[in-house]
Amino acid sequence: MALELLVLAAALLLALFLVPVGLPGLWLMLGAAFVFRLVEPAGGIGTRTLLGVAMLVVLAEALEFLVGAKFTRRFGGSRRASWGAILGGLIGAVVGVPIPIIGSIIGGFVGAFVGALVAELSIAREKRGDPTRVATGALIGRAVGAAVKVAIGAVVAGWLLAAASVG
Description:
There is one protein chain. This protein is mainly α. The protein has one domain (2-166). It contains six helices and no strands.
């Protein structure tokens, strides 16, 4: 079991480093937990742990985008700008993937900024906030959302390692 635990720890660490890059590290953590459970049925990662971790993964994904939208609104953005930040961040992360390591990070940040900016500029002048300020809020929100996701990823990794060690 020691080798399996070591492989799990390495997989979780690698997956955690993928999270800020914009890749699905949390989902890979969940997959690693499932594989560990298949290889070591008595290894300590039970159904409750898997369900709890799955709920945290879904929560982290939702929070990443909700935090970005919240910051967009906090900086004077409209609901449209919040959606622009979310969609722009997603599109930017996907477009940035071909650039190794940092492409999806930069793409996500730039996409959130541009998405919020374009959405805010599409509103009638008398109803909109300062588009640059709104877009800056979207950028900050994207960074805070990524940090929240990494923090939840660290909790997931710790939980899985603790559960796997018990078995």
